[in-house]
Amino acid sequence: MDTFSKRKFIIAGIMLGIAVIFIIRLFSMQILNKSYKQFATRNVLRRITVFPARGFIYDRKMNFMVYNKAAYDLLVVPREVKPFDTTELCNIIQLERVDLREALKKAKQFSYYKPSIIVGQISPDIYAPLQEKLYKYPGFFVQSRTLREYPSKSAAQILGYVGEVNQHIMESDKYYGMGDYIGVSGLEKAYEKDLRGIKGVKNSMVDVHNRIKGRYNNGEADTTAILGHNLLTGMDSKLQAYAELLMTNKRGAIVAIEPSTGEIILMVSTPSYDPNLLVGRQRGTNYGILERDSVNKPMWNRAIIGTYSPGSTFKLANALIALQVHAITPFDRFSCSGPASTPIKCTHIHVSPLAMREGIRESCNSYFWNVYRSIINRSGNVSDNYQKWRDYMVSFGFGQKIGTELTSEVKGFIPELSYYDKLYGQARWNAMTIRSNSIGQGEILATPLQMANMVSMVANRGYYITPHLVKAIQDTNRVFRELKYDKKVMDISPEYFNTVIEGMQAVVDETKLKMTVHLDNIIVCGKTGTVQNPHGADHSAFVGFAPRDNPKIAIAVFIENAGFGATYAAPIGGLLIEKYLNDSIAPKRKELEQRLIETDLLNVVQVKK
Predict the structure, then answer these.
(1) Over the stretch 290-308, which tens digit does the pLDDT of each residue have?
(2) Which of 66, 264, 450, 490 is the most exposed place for a label (fewest CB within 10 A)?
(3) How far apart are CA 485 and CA 513, in angstroms?
(4) pLDDT tens per residue, range 90-121
(5) Which CATH code is given to the segment(s) 237-289+301-571+585-598?
(6) How confident is the model at residue 33, as a pLDDT?
(7) CATH fold of 47-233, please?
């Protein structure tokens, strides 16, 4: 065999060997190695996020305050999009063509390969025709989600709302992705991690017409969405709605607490809005309208943000402190006339001199000036006496956040010792200088929540449970987990509360409040306040609780620019107490009820006292 023939066989052998290697490699790649099959599969595989149903929110009687309704998002994967009839799609999803083009542009900027939301929160009415024609639009697909629904259309500032996450939220919490929603305010924000649940994933096979043909790999790669936990609140949704009805066309706040538990029964802030306005595709437009209303500020929760001089309702706290530090006794009498009454005159005619029970009943300014003077100017150093007075006020819950779940709560204001030292000079002030504190005016500021908490503590004769909205959380096994809240015990003897409560009962039973607050079958204790307002008409205030023994409800009512406390705040408080305890309003009080509902105080400049 010549050299040429040998070379030919060698070359042929080498080529055959190479061919065998390629065949073996191709067999390995295509038959034995599954990863390449997965790469091919991805061309027809759609990974769909399964959003869990957000947890429900119940009232104390297991009535729905928030539940869910079905909605859908239209998403797009830009690299899969082919030319389509934009007019038809825009008509189906009710979107302007310019908005569709802008959404597609943003989707391409985000990623050519990852899905982006084109239109969110599509209603079932729009989804039905869209699903029928979705095969015409390669690259587009739909994923389901839920929207919040508010059946009673009340408690908007308390329940809060959900909104789309921003870049900062996505970077700080990897749970959230583009197009996800998060609690923005109220209970939705405070209990976000409980309410949101855990997302799942469903991998589906789709055909060339963009239609789902079944589960990928029998669902082995799927994960199940875990439902959000339900919240059980201490609120009474029907009483909440009734309170908002009574506050129609009025500016102010109401807070009611169950004294023995600290559960907030109702929390009203008006003007308010229908929480359903911040759900769905019109949320952005409606939010802008509400946010721009600088006069009524409907998105403010005045119950925890609004700070008011508490007025005469504050006299209850001053009375208790004076008794505890032995500055006075329940039987010490002070007159409305003479030098001792000069700094703060009494505003109405009554029997004089007065002891504590009558002082509370008549809300005598001169009497409580003398009470406060006895606390601050008693033996010892004025600064030390003031500091002790302030410490008691803080223990009542004033001048601090008292701990409700809502993050927007403010502290109010009880001036520190340094405040007056800076304002007047150290050792250059005394009770006379700061005498407005005696009647809840001057620098003193409190929220309606703090006032409700104070009267709840009085109802309990010396303690309060941290006020709270949520009493229990229900997990996915339908088991309720009770939440624990702190009990704060006051350093004030129980017998002193009895003296103050006797005065509060006299306010309701022995004054004009007997016509509007007194109940035939239940002892109600209360205190009115007419709060001086340098910016216009005085504010109307009322605090109270009932029954006197084993109290079930403590309430604070503040109505801006409404004049005397007995005119509007007290009657509204009385109706709410009656409605809660009796579940109805007596026929003889229906006329009062209707008058209060129809009264418009939003545009009041001045109210005649």
Answers:
(1) 999 999 999 999 999 999 9
(2) 490
(3) 35
(4) 999 999 999 999 999 989 988 888 888 898 88
(5) 3.40.710.10
(6) 58
(7) Penicillin-binding protein 2a (Domain 2) (3.90.1310)
